[in-house]
Amino acid sequence: FNYFPQLFKPAMSPLQLLIKVGRLAVVQSPRIASRAASSTAASTDKWSNLKGRHFLTLRDYSESEIAQLLWTAKDLKARHAQDRLLSYRPLEGHSLGMIFEKRSTRTRVSTETGFFLLGGQPVFLSPQDVHLGTNESLPDTAKVLSGFCDAVLARVYAHDSLMTLSEHSSVPIVNGLSDQYHPLQVLADFLTAYENFGHLNGLVWAFVGDGDNNMTHALLDDGLPQAGHIRIASPAGYDPNPAVVQDARELSRQYGTQLVLTRDPAEAVRGADVIVTDTFVSMGREAEKERRLKDFKGFQVKLQPGGAHAKPRWVFMHCLPRKQEEVTDDIFYDSKRSLVWPESHNRKWTVMSVLLNVLNDQYRPACPMPSF
Question: Number of structural domains, the chain?
Answer without folding.
Answer: 2
